[in-house]
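Hi V.,

You were right to ask for the full record rather than a summary. Here it is.
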Amino acid sequence: MKKLSVLLLLPLAACIRFGAEPPPALLTLTPAAPVAAGQTQNSAAARSITVQVPVVPQELAVTRVPVQSSPTTIAYVKEAQWVEPPARLFARLLSDTLTSRANMVVLSPRQGFTDPGAQLSGELRQFGIDATRNEAVVVYDATLQRVNATTFEKRRFEARVPVTVIDANNAGPAINQAANTVATAVADWVRR
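Predicted structure:
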């Protein structure tokens, strides 16, 4: 009787799935100006900065790639998923770009307590595809408090890169290019 019960349950086991099926590949960001391996930095010899993970709207709080199909409608690219939430990917890209392009020592928020350098925070407002214009879009509203300053500077950075087809193969590289353009512009602004 037990054998018969197990045999009857086997076809059902093939139908049961816990969670969604993962996409064939996960997307990530790669810096256009990577940090050289073996490079030692010292906050006594270079300016330091703490980069906060940006605040994001709800459509970016997930690992899916949003597509703005109208001013009030958002969908997601089929089979496209980030390896981790976009805010963390973008913060890491900013850190690498500030290190390599602005020659700054990037500290974690915890390290920033002992070495109060500049502070960079902000909101990642768009990080996806604009289907109305067939473009990858990255919009970052940065807030900078320079060393020993009692005021803040705010600035919006935006980059758009054309995409021919809205799919996982084209969305990832286009968003990566737009994110690197924004990160480079932020690094140039911060190092002044």
